[in-house]
Amino acid sequence: MPFGFVTSEGSADMQDTARSAGALFVIVKPFTPDTFRDALSAVLV
């Protein structure tokens, strides 16, 4: 099942961990609706 990762921890290590676990995108809080939409658009195209 495809998934994205939304986190308050934005370190490079956390992002690498999420991606290595299969996350299609990583969004760091705080985020805007535009940030979320852009991340989804990038992986759904």
UniProtKB/TrEMBL annotation:
Name the InterPro entries on file.
CheY-like_superfamily, Sig_transdc_resp-reg_receiver
Coiled coil stretches, renumbered: none
**Residue span, Response regulatory domain:** 1-44
Membrane-crossing segments per the record = none
Tell me the protein's name: Response regulatory domain-containing protein
UniProt source species = Angustibacter aerolatus
